[in-house]
Each structure stands twice: as structure tokens, then as C-alpha cells.
């Protein structure tokens, strides 16, 4: 998993409530267990019409937001089904951070596990950032995870809270497998000792 340290990027304003996982990645695209290739279907019902043509009024179909790495939204982002394909699609598109007043719990947890930083900030602050982002490509937002601040284009720093353990995992790029591999030496030692003390047990399952 790619570490998340400091990100300075274009932020796309999406002032919508209840953006559910079926809007993020519709169920008909959940035919893969790969994490790559889903970005082209991100927000499919919002980005494309029934003929597959781009809707020009949708924010991610406009410059400079086609390359946005930050989304700023309203309440209850990621509600709906628990599909992990939702953060996969966001990450594959290039989104590394989502700022909103609150998130659906499962989506919130899945985001951390896949290297996306979800930041909870009050609605009024989100609205300020949305207005900032509407200024275009020069109005870049900086997210500094180590210092736990979002920096507006005017230089104002906004503090955000994050669980210390989740912060550690993101800063070091550790997903569930990465956490396990940190203990590889101890695991190998345990397995070697078990083979010596219980040689009748199978070595593989």
C-alpha cells in the first residue's frame, strides 16, 4: 500500500449528501476481485449518460478536476452496501483523500485499509473548502497527515482528528498484509519451533 504523508492536489467539489456506494461504483461492475481497472467506472451514473458519453456538467468531467486527488463532499459519504470495490475505484481513479462531515462506518474503515484518508470536518468548514476548490487548478489543497492539518489555498490550517494507530498505518503504507509481514521473523521462528516439537503435524494446509 502506498504511504500517505503529505498531499497537495486539486480538490473536486461534490456538495452532495448520501453519496452511496452504488453511485461510487455500480453493482454491475463488481465482477472482479482485482483492485485495478475500476477507476474508469467511478461515479458511472453521474459521469456518463445511457450511451456511455460523458455528462459535461459533472465535476470530474471538467478541467482541472479530471486529475483531482481530493474530494470534498457533504454528509454520509459512502453509505449503502459494504462493497470494498468503492475505495478500490476511488483509488484507481487517483483519489487519495475525501473530506466530508461524516462517512458511513464500513466505507470509512475500508478507506483506511486501502490507503485513502477520510477526514471528518464540520459542514461549515467543508463548505469553505468547496468554495476554495471552485477557483480551479490554482486553488490547491494540502493535506499533511503527520501534522494533521488541511491547508487552504490562502494558507489557513485546519486541524483534523485521526486515530493514532490508523495514522501510523497510513504514514507507513501498511495494510492488513503489511501489518502481518512486520512480524514475519517471529512467525518463521514459531513455525520452525513447531516443526521441531511436533514433526507429525502437516507443514501446509
Overview of this protein structure:
With 205 residues, this protein is α/β, with parallel strands linked by helices. The protein has a single domain (6-174), classed as Aconitase, domain 4 (Alpha-Beta Barrel). The chain contains eight helices and eight strands. The protein has helices spanning 21-24, 44-47, 85-93, 105-113, 123-133, 164-172, 176-181, 184-197, and strands at 6-9, 11-14, 70-73, 97-100, 117-120, 141-144, 149-151, 157-159. The strands form two sheets. It has a four-stranded antiparallel sheet, with no helix packed on it. Strand 4, helix 4 (105-113) and strand 5 form a beta-alpha-beta unit. The longest helix has 14 residues, at 184-197. It is globular, with a radius of gyration of 20 Å. It starts with 5 loop residues before the first strand and ends in an 8-residue tail after the last helix. The relative contact order is 0.16. The mean pLDDT is 91.
Summarize this structure as a short list of keywords or feature phrases.
4-stranded antiparallel beta sheet; 32% helix; 205 residues; 4-stranded parallel beta sheet; Aconitase, domain 4
Distance between the termini: 27 Å
Low-pLDDT segments, ≥5 res: none
> What's the name of the CATH homologous superfamily?
Aconitase, domain 4
Number of domains: 1
Biggest sheet strand line-up: 1-6-7-8
Separate helix tally: 8
Overall geometric form: globular
Q: What's the average pLDDT?
A: 91
Q: What's the helical proportion of residues?
A: 25-40%
Short description:
By secondary structure, this protein is an alpha/beta fold. It has 8 helices and 8 strands, in the order ββααβαβαβαβββααα.
Amino acid at each position: 500500500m502506498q504511504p500517505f504523508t503529505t498531499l497537495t492536489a486539486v480538490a473536486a467539489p461534490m456538495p452532495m449528501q448520501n453519496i452511496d456506494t452504488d453511485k461510487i461504483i455500480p453493482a454491475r461492475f463488481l465482477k472482479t476481485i482485482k483492485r485495478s481497472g475500476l477507476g474508469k467506472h467511478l461515479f458511472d451514473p453521474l459521469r456518463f449518460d445511457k450511451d456511455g458519453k460523458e455528462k459535461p456538467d459533472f465535476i470530474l468531467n471538467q478541467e482541472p478536476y479530471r486529475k483531482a486527488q481530493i474530494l470534498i463532499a457533504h454528509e454520509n459519504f459512502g453509505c449503502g452496501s459494504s462493497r470494498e470495490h468503492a475505495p478500490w475505484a476511488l483509488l484507481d481513479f487517483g483519489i487519495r483523500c475525501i473530506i466530508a462531515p461524516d462517512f458511513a462506518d464500513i466505507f470509512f474503515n475500508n478507506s483506511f485499509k486501502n490507503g485513502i484518508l477520510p477526514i471528518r470536518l464540520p459542514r461549515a468548514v467543508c463548505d469553505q473548502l468547496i468554495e476554495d476548490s471552485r477557483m480551479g487548478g490554482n486553488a490547491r489543497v494540502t493535506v499533511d497527515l503527520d501534522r494533521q492539518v488541511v491547508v487552504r489555498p490562502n494558507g489557513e490550517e485546519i486541524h483534523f482528528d485521526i486515530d493514532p494507530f490508523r495514522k501510523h498505518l497510513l504514514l507507513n503504507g501498511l495494510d492488513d498484509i503489511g501489518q502481518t509481514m512486520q512480524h514475519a521473523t517471529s512467525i518463521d521462528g514459531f513455525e520452525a519451533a513447531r516443526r521441531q516439537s511436533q514433526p507429525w503435524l502437516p507443514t501446509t494446509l
